[in-house]
Design goal:
By secondary structure, the chain is an all-alpha fold. The chain has a domain of 66 residues: Tetratricopeptide repeat domain (Serine Threonine Protein Phosphatase 5, Tetratricopeptide repeat). The protein contains 13 helices and no strands. Helix 9 runs parallel beside helix 11 and helix 10 crosses helix 11. The relative contact order is 0.08. About 5% of the residues have low confidence. Keywords: Repeat, Signal, TPR repeat. This is Type IV pilus biogenesis/stability protein PilW.
């Protein structure tokens, strides 16, 4: 079954001095170790930024440099794992995700990212363990990401009931979390519950309303409930804001 959605990622590379292993024997060595760590995290941040802009060659250069500077940084291992995942180098991605969670088991973001990777590989039980590690951690500030990704993973397994439960749990953590609202609206619309779908979409506020997926679903649902003015608004925003999107092209072809 197709996911029909983009995984919800939360990649935050924070330039901060983490606790360092106590193997240095002098203040000068500790200072140099701290400097190497800061440089590694800075290069990891640059690597993530290059990934976001699609410059994978420079991302690879920065992240390999970061690994050389501090191979024992969970931040660096997580960032490099994401790049390997992007490049389809799954063995290297899994190896680096595993090292990242071993280096810092309390990092919910790393567990969430590892869960996404494992689910993409079809390792559903292992993915669930990682998502649960993330949302069960009281220090993880955004458990809604892990719940929502667990819902998307449940959809991939074909378990709509479990998916709905996970999306509702995400909303319990963050009532306005648009990825979960969109998924619940889509599930409702797929089952013909268009009024319910419309209610979920109506809870998406601000800039989150404006994405090709949400606008296309909005158009479909508004038509189904007989709100032609609302449907026209969604179509107008889709054409105006995302004219080259697959959703806009599909709509033009079907007119």
């Amino acid at each position: 079954m197709s996911l029909g959605a983009t995984w919800i990622r939360r990649v935050l590379v924070i330039i901060a001095l983490a606790s360092l292993a106590g193997c240095a024997t002098s203040p000068q060595e500790r200072k140099e170790e701290a400097q190497q760590h800061r440089a590694a995290v800075l290069n990891a941040q640059l690597g993530i930024d290059y990934m976001r802009t699609g410059n994978l060659k420079l991302a690879d250069e920065k992240l390999k440099r970061a690994l050389n500077q501090d191979p024992n940084s969970s931040i660096v291992r997580n960032a490099y794992a994401l790049l390997m995942q992007r490049l389809g180098k799954n063995n290297e991605a899994e190896d680096n995700f595993s090292k990242a969670v071993a280096l810092k088991p309390s990092d919910g973001d790393v567990h969430n990212n590892f869960g996404v990777f494992l689910c993409e590989q079809g390792h559903y039980s292992r993915a669930y363990v990682q998502f649960k590690e993330a949302w069960s951690n009281p220090l993880y500030n955004t458990p809604e990401f892990a719940y929502a990704n667990a819902g998307i993973c449940a959809l991939k397994q074909g378990d709509k009931k479990l998916a709905e439960q996970r999306f509702e749990q995400a909303l319990h953590e963050q009532p306005g979390f648009s990825p979960a609202l969109y998924q619940l609206a889509k599930l409702a619309a797929d089952q013909g519950h268009n009024q319910k779908a419309d209610a979920y979409l109506g809870r998406i506020t601000g800039e989150a309303r404006y994405s090709p997926n949400i606008l296309a679903l909005c158009l479909k649902v508004k038509r189904a409930v007989g709100d032609m003015n609302g449907a026209a608004d969604c179509a107008r925003d889709l054409y105006r804001m995302f004219p080259n999107s697959p959703q806009a092209r599909a709509l033009l072809q079907n007119r």
